Amino acid sequence: MIERTSEALRQYPHLRRAFIRALQMEELFAIPEQLESLKQVVLELAAQYKQQQEQLNRIEQTANRALEVAERALQVAERSQQTAERANEIAERALQVAERSQQTAERALQVAERSQQTAERANEIAERALQVAERSQQTSERAQQTSEHAQQTAEHALQVALETRDIVNDMQKRLTRVEADVADLKGMSMELMARKLLPGVLGKLVRKLRVYEPDEFYRVMEEVDLLSADDLAEVASADAFAHGQLRSNDTPRWFVVEASWGLGIKDVERAARRAAILTQNGAPAIGTVLGRRITADARKRAQQLGVLVVVNGATRNPEAAT
Questions:
Q1: Mean pLDDT of each 10-residue bin along the chain, 322 residues long
Q2: Which of 151, 178, 278, 301 could be joined to 283 by an S-S link, Cβ 3.0–4.6 Å?
Q3: Domain coverage including residue 155
Q4: 49 and 115 in contact (C-beta within 8 Å)?
Q5: Strand pairing partners for 246?
Q6: Which CATH number characterizes residue 243's domain?
Q7: Do 9 and 16 contact (CB within 8 A), yes or no?
Q8: How does pLDDT run across 67-100, given as a tens digit for each residue?
Q9: Does residue 314 belong to any structural domain of this protein?
Q10: Contact at 8 Å (CB) between 288 and 254?
């Protein structure tokens, strides 16, 4: 992980500061400035040392020259009294040079003391830099440990997520099967309930009402021989049948019933189509749908096709039974 991180930082230098901030090592940003300050101090010391060395060289040269002058003055003093006076003047000048040399030496000592102080400060800065580097290493080690732990956590989370996904998929499949089974059971229950409800519902509209099971209706239609085999198979696929005389005009009518828990457009259209087959072959019929609820579109379609609608045991459009 550290090698990949180092490689990424070499390839993308602009990420270095963000990486350092992420590791909470902002103190490293101050190191380059501190080292630059240390470099300037060292350069100043070197320049001062060079100047001091040059001054000392000049002092030495002056002293040497003074010594030579003194020797010549001594020789001249031995030869001449007048030369002694001149030597005295030269000695005074040499004394002045010596005094200036002493002053220069004192200044050099002060510079040396300041240089020592600067060196001590540089040593302190170096020690702080070392401490920062050690903390940086410790932080990197903790970051690596944290990264390894995060990777382990992510792997565990991924495994849990995969297992959860499999469980959810299995539950969805089971739920789909259960919904299908429930829908089948609802459909079967509504078919059975339709045959029980028809007398009470249609009895208000029809006299001499008789309810037929699909197999009974099939046998009746075979005996009268009104329908072709295909038409009979189509009509007999309805859920229930009833026959009686309308109370309004004593006209005989068949009721072709489609039963469903929730009635839709397809239920309405099937009932209308099968009733139309009977009507076209000499057995006037009314398409009927029976259920617990019906959609708005299916109710509208029933009005268009003249299909009788029975919801929760009550007729919604009794005018269709004509």
A1: 72 70 65 75 81 82 74 67 62 62 65 66 65 69 68 69 57 45 46 84 94 95 95 96 95 96 97 98 97 96 97 93 86
A2: 278
A3: 2-161
A4: yes
A5: 206
A6: 3.40.1350
A7: yes
A8: 785 588 558 448 857 744 873 684 477 457 447 7
A9: yes
A10: no
